[in-house]
Specification:
By secondary structure, the chain is mainly α. It contains 3 helices and no strands.
């Protein structure tokens, strides 16, 4: 196993992690921004007002993007297992 192989495997792993986490992080960011604007406009400073809608949006985003995320993770793992003979040999 060469250093270039290790770097390429690490790069691929980081790219998969970024792609898998992006939908949930971006939806939480958008929800937090909208809720923050609403709280600033109405001067309602209740913690549950920000927590419950974010939780609901994250569940919806996971429901929508979950199959894609699972498919991407399975494809990455399958490719990694298929590369084992090339890496070891």
């Amino acid at each position: 196993m060469t250093p270039d192989t290790v770097i390429e495997l690490g790069r691929q792993a980081l790219m998969v992690i970024i792609l898998l986490s992006a939908p949930l992080l971006l939806s939480a960011l958008a929800a937090g921004l909208l809720i923050g604007l609403f709280q600033a406009a109405t001067q309602i400073q209740d913690m549950t007002l920000s927590f419950i809608p974010k939780l609901i949006i994250l569940v919806v985003a996971l429901g929508i993007t979950g199959p894609w995320m699972l498919r991407m993770l399975i494809d990455y793992t399958r490719n990694l297992f298929q590369m084992i003979p090339d890496i070891v040999g």
